[in-house]
Amino acid sequence: MKRLFTLVITLFTLLFTQQFYSQTSILERLDAIETSFSFTSEEVPLTVLSQHILKYPIRSTTRTDPSIVSYGEEYFLEIELLSELTKQSGRRLLDAPYVLRFYSERGEIIGHTALNSESVRMTFIDEERKMPPRFIRISLRTIPFALLERTSRIDIIELVR
């Protein structure tokens, strides 16, 4: 009788777990934090389909000794866009082709940062990259979370030479 009870409980747990995971999205399973920023590019509103903050595992090596490997986690802001970023000609600072400006609810600029191409990853739908990028992943390594907490709008600019 005890074995039968254990078997029934095990089957019930497996079925409940299976049903729970079939109803949740990948983002929910990864504990993604949905955000509600508005995004612009040179003050032009961007059409954003989804946005969230995710924690990814990272692997890094040192420049002096590539055999030294470290592992950790890093937070990223992922954005799914339908709009194109504004490209602005200008001088890049230390190979930082992206500038992010952070605005409060009152429209005041509360911070800005320049990011290099390692900190901003774009995924395109077409191989020729003629269409605008569909997904943008921004590393939050150098962006304070206290700044994000006070941010209402993020302006993203791509600098080109």
* Tally of individual helices: 3
Question: Whole-Å distance between the termini?
Answer: 76 Å
Question: Biggest sheet, in brief?
Answer: 6 strands, mixed
Q: Please identify the structural class as seen in this structure.
A: alpha+beta
Mean pLDDT metric: 80
Shape: globular
Rg: 21 Å
Number of domains: 2
For the secondary structure, the number of strands is: 11
Q: Approximately what portion of the residues adopt beta-strand conformation?
A: 35-45%
The SSE order reads HHEEEEEEEEEEHE
The percent range for helix content is: 10-25%
| Low-pLDDT segments | none
Descriptive key words:
single chain, six-stranded mixed sheet, 19% helix
What's the quick description here?
The protein is α+β, with helices and mostly antiparallel strands and 161 residues long.
Task: Please give a structural write-up.
The structure is a single chain. The protein has 161 residues and is α+β, with helices and mostly antiparallel strands. It folds into 2 domains: 1-26; 31-160, no CATH class. It contains 3 helices and 11 strands; from the N terminus they run ααββββββββββαβ. It has helices spanning 2-22, 26-29, 145-150; strands at 33-34, 38-41, 44-45, 48-61, 69-81, 87-89, 98-103, 109-115, 120-123, 135-139, 153-160. Strands 2, 3, 6, 7, 8 and 11 form a 6-stranded mixed β-sheet that branches. A 5-stranded antiparallel β-sheet has the order 1-4-5-10-9, with no helix packed on it. The chain is globular. The N and C termini lie far apart (76 Å). The mean pLDDT is 80.
